[in-house]
Amino acid sequence: MDNMIKKIEHFMELGGIKKDILFLVIGGISLIISLFDLIPLPFDAAWAAILLCGVPILMEAIIGLITAFDIKADVLVSLALIASVCIGEDFAAGEVAFIMQLGALLEDLTVAKARAGIEKLVHLTPQTARVIIDGTEKIIPAQQVKVGDVIRVLPGETVAVDGIILSGQTSVNQAVMTGESLPVDKSAGDEVSSGTVNQFGAFEMRAAKVGEDSSIQRMIKLVQSADAGKAKIVGLADRWATWIVVIALSAAGLTWAFTGEIIRAVTILVVFCPCALVLATPTAIMAAIGNSTKHGFLVREGDALERLSAVTKITFDKTGTLTYGTPQVTAVKSVSKFTEEEVYAFAAAAEQLSEHPLGKAILRCYGKKPAACDHFKMDPGEGVSATVDGKLVKAGNLKLLKGITLSKTLAREAGKYLMEGSTVTYVAIDGILAGYIVLSDTVREESRDMVAALERIGVQPVLLTGDNQNAARTIADQLGIRQVYAGCLPEDKLRHIGAYQENGDTVCMIGDGINDAPALKKANVGIAMGGVGSDIAVDAADIALVDDEIRELPHLLSLSKRMMTTIKVNLTFSMGLNFLAIALAITGLLGPVIGALVHNAGSVLVILNSALLLNWKKK
Questions:
Q1: Catalytic residue flag (residue 134)
Q2: Residues 6+ away with beta carbon under 8 Å from 448
């Protein structure tokens, strides 16, 4: 029995949408021939529609009953088909089968269109890689690349796996992973991600993450897990469908018993199929997932959107979420004869060979080609020193500036920046303190408008950060966030989220780092910053924001609420139509053929209503 079921399931999966379209075309032509008796045949032409469109429905019903005693719409449809054939209503049976398959095809097309938007984000998976073996270049399938292999990437090619550049300089388009519109310069020691595109120079790299561990494959796994069937409200609709099957059978039996007209009983079975009810939820969820993808979100399951619609509080990590997560030069101060521009120029020149993130940040923010430097030296944990234009330049913390003391005024000024969470790099020239450079993580430009938009739709933002109270309050004041919890360790974030949940709030957590993973799991809905976030954070979240554009967050929340409204409208409409149709069928005003048209027109309208979510945007 199990082997037979597997063979049936394999047959039903062949061809997918193309097979369904072919069967529908043949079935539609056969119904036209049957209706107008165009071709004399020894049998009713409607049987082509019954066999091609109705047999798959019967198979689904049989498999569901045998494997799990699953009473769904297919069971009632099958009964309607069998009853129609038994009383000689071949055309009605063919029409029921045809329109049921048409409704299923429309659902598949809606889902396919929704998924197509997601797949566009990850459709750049490279197929081959140029591996260097014993000095010889060999092109192999990308899935055969192993960790440690040396790969050559030419201009215009897509990076096959994650890795680290060994030699060469280039610019890489990382839009598929980070949303950055401009290419990023890369050289030896820099990391590159699979799916990104090499734009200019050739380079060689060592593979670090391959196969399913690579960045692009991780995104694909998110796509494949976008399953509307996991939504709780789908289960609710299924339970209703089961009861409707029981009610329909009872109504058909009683009508036949009291009126003696089996055609009325058959019509009841035809019009009371709960197809529109079953279609109401998954089509809306998948359309909403498709919409969210266009705005940079990868939704792992429809249940996440259902839960998101009830969110009352959103807790934010600060660094990399509300801020860019990379240090920027925010102030340059001179305390000597050198101007601020000269202090900045000397520091950039001294830092140009530094591997330290702060040194790289100073050089990046300087934005000009620095002067040449000699005798470069890096002191771990302190800073760098170098000779620039014949002058000894030191840039780093106070440990590097041995023998130099700060005045009380300077110490107070620098201390103010430190209290706000900034970092201070002191610059000394020929043994004299010349000035200092302030670096800090800057707020994303869109963060303030995003926070205001959240409050307008009734969701309260909360800041949970590991920074000190002053630094947290400074950022919160800039953004207009009133509830702030500073100095939070991972367990502190869990405690705060748990307290909100015990208070009756539905909480959404947004973070990017490994330390945010527990909170992302604890929250009712977890959203990870997919571009800058860690692998662990993304895996722990329900939703990933691929391009880190948090300005789209209010749209996602509004979309989730709109999705739930659409589902409720679909359910109400489908139930109302079913009860109206059964009342007309009991009184004899609706026959099997017209009943099938009315019933399945309801299914089509439900699907079309759900499809409106694909391009919905709040005005």
A1: no
A2: 478, 479, 480
